[in-house]
From TrEMBL, chains A, B:
Keywords: DNA-binding, Transcription, Transcription regulation. It comes from Aquitalea magnusonii. One of its GO terms (molecular function) is transcription cis-regulatory region binding. InterPro entries: HTH_LacI (IPR000843), LacI/GalR-like_sensor (IPR046335), Lambda_DNA-bd_dom_sf (IPR010982), Peripla_BP_I (IPR028082). This is LacI family transcriptional regulator.
Length: 352, 352
DNA sequence: AGGTGTTGTGTAATCGATTTCAATGCCATC
DNA sequence: GATGGCATTGAAATCGATTACACAACACCT
């Protein structure tokens, strides 16, 4: 009398397949598939199918679906380090936008390592992803050929040679110029900078600083480092031990700025009285550290959202020529660059 | 004369299947599959297959592989917000550990929203993930039944009722006690706290504070808020406008601590002269903000790594009873709780 | 010699869905 | 009443891999 088939007992340990739903609903598997998707199915059968799905606890197998339909509904997001608040913010924007159009996101960290980049790009191919949003190192950006990859790529934060790939980046020259002009207006002249040595972004921001300084007949001393707080801290400690001291330092991103501040603290210099600090990325903490740090705020959420939008547009029209969207940064002046009229301030300048 | 089959032309637009590799190597598809995996294949044929793979540019289709093998080699990581540095650090640890054993990670943000949690758990089932690492809200933690889900779950940061699921958490009572004892030793008596209202963690840290205070015959005033900087800032601004003012405030996580500091700044109170601040999570910036913030440092990387290890152990032995690993936090005392002997210090206390 | 493993290989079944294709029923039209 | 078109439906092919099974070749024992 008891049924020995895997029928009604709703949460048995066996996984329930579309075939089981079809049997429970008294229809064919094709009808179930169509009812779950958007195929033409009569209201009557659709209701039956929905009831059967609920009764059996059916959950589609995405691997099977992807294999047959040849659509992964997945995009890859390859960044250098998710611990950098810039990338966490961008990734939230990308994820929100992706899930809104029914796509999943695979997130990968490369640690600025070209080998890891190659590995993850290969993984993306094996996953047959719909597209990829990618912040490449300089080395990879140069030899990247999106045609070869089999899926569209949108670069973020860092651009490739023009015409190669879609990209959404900051206007680094303009932003660097904003920082330099601000520092000059505050009376600083001997301006130095610490720039990441792995990306085009570090190079572009450096170029922007040099160009802005040149317009005033000045020179900037630049040093190139691994874009980590640790490297930046060490570089600043070394720098401040040398005879010729800068009046102001510019950091090419938020992590470098963090290390810079640590280095300055360790060296015992007070900010801004003895040394001004400024940099990129309006990370949460920059407002609260010391006298507040002067930064360029990037439209982080916009960058992620725009990248996703460009990816979708590219999917619609694979033939269109590559576009580069350039967004503007905003200068947020704070206490770390407050004045260079040394000795007119209180003993520390940390008040406010 | 020219071959019209999809043979040699190595990067043709058609995707190359295992069948093509087999033909190119002059062997069966089974042999190719075995050569790529770990099956028994003679050295001679293995070499031929490798050559054919290189020549054709073959890339396995992971969907097909997963469908047939019934192994997704994927784990889900469900956190409340990747913008919280605690979770970014944990996620890096999880990813590193996962990729080291050949597993991929799907990362999801729930925004402390039970509906999103349910949605992502369902997604995990559809993906047929190997397992999940999950930081649930209190609501979900209580009704969660890992048996029902079809894959093992390891909870992080927040535990479920005992025996329900594996978990790796901080010793919240101990950590809260460390904070309270430190504040008392510094001379603070009227201690308040802001705790997240969505997780068991907020509740446990609150309970720990209350217990520690009681041991000294004191009471703590607690307020419960959404665990975001915005909510914390507003709560502190409101609090500081009331007649009865606290001497010290404790924040139940890094984001709340951030908002707390903003609120205190906005209210114009100086730290620690007028108000001491302390909290959880040794986020990068806490060392650099104001006089430095006293915090409990969590072993973030360890938490992620341990969670992954427990997940793997659970996969090996699904029958073992649930374990809860409790890790200890470390007190890092900084200037934000420096003294309560008001007026004996300099005008600001920000020096050091 | 004759059985018994062992190793390496190919054929074909299989994973669980989507999609093609043919068939059906119904209605409007000539 | 025959015909054509349209909307639904089911049977079977298909996606691209892994793996069960059969089998051949060869070594190793009594």
């Amino acid at each position: 009398m008891q049924d020995h088939d895997n029928l009604t007992e709703n949460d048995c340990k066996m996984t329930v397949r579309i075939k089981d739903v079809a049997r429970a609903a008294g229809v064919s598997v094709a009808t179930v598939s169509r009812a779950l998707g958007d195929g033409p199915v009569s209201d009557e059968l659709r209701k039956k199918v929905e009831a059967a799905v609920a009764a059996t606890g059916y959950l589609p197998n995405l691997s099977a679906r992807r294999l047959r339909s040849q659509h992964s509904h997945t995009i890859g997001l390859i960044v250098s380090d998710i611990r950098n608040p810039f990338f966490t913010a961008v990734s939230r924007a990308v994820e929100d936008a992706a899930y809104a159009v029914g796509m999943r996101v695979i997130l990968c960290n490369t640690d600025e390592n070209p080998q890891k980049e190659a590995m993850y790009l290969r993984l993306m191919q094996e996953e047959r992803v719909t597209g990829v949003i990618f912040a490449p190192t300089r080395a990879t950006a140069q030899k990247l050929d999106p045609q070869q990859l089999g899926f569209p790529v949108v670069l973020i934060d860092r651009a490739a040679p023009p015409g190669h790939a879609d990209a959404v980046v900051l206007d680094n020259a303009e932003a660097a110029s904003l920082l330099v002009e601000h520092l000059l207006a505050q009376g600083y002249r001997r301006i130095g900078g610490l720039f990441g040595n792995t990306s085009t972004t570090g190079a572009e921001r450096h170029a922007g600083v040099v160009a802005a300084m040149q317009r005033h007949g000045l020179q900037a001393e630049a040093r190139f480092i691994a874009p980590t707080p640790e490297a930046a801290e060490q570089a600043v400690r070394d720098w401040l031990r040398e005879p010729a001291q800068p009046e102001a330092l510019i950091a090419s991103n938020g992590l470098v700025l963090l290390g810079m501040l640590r280095g300055a603290r360790a060296a015992g210099v007070s900010i801004p009285a003895q040394l001004a600090l400024a940099g990129f990325d309006n990370d949460n903490w920059t407002e609260l550290a010391g006298p507040g740090l002067t930064v360029i705020e990037q439209p982080v959420y916009d960058i992620g959202r725009t990248a996703m939008k460009m990816l979708l547009e590219r999917l619609e029209d694979p033939a269109r020529s590559a576009r580069k969207v350039v967004l503007s940064g905003r200068l947020i002046a704070r206490g770390s660059t407050a004045h260079n009229l040394a000795a007119d301030a209180g003993p520390d300048g940390a008040g406010r």
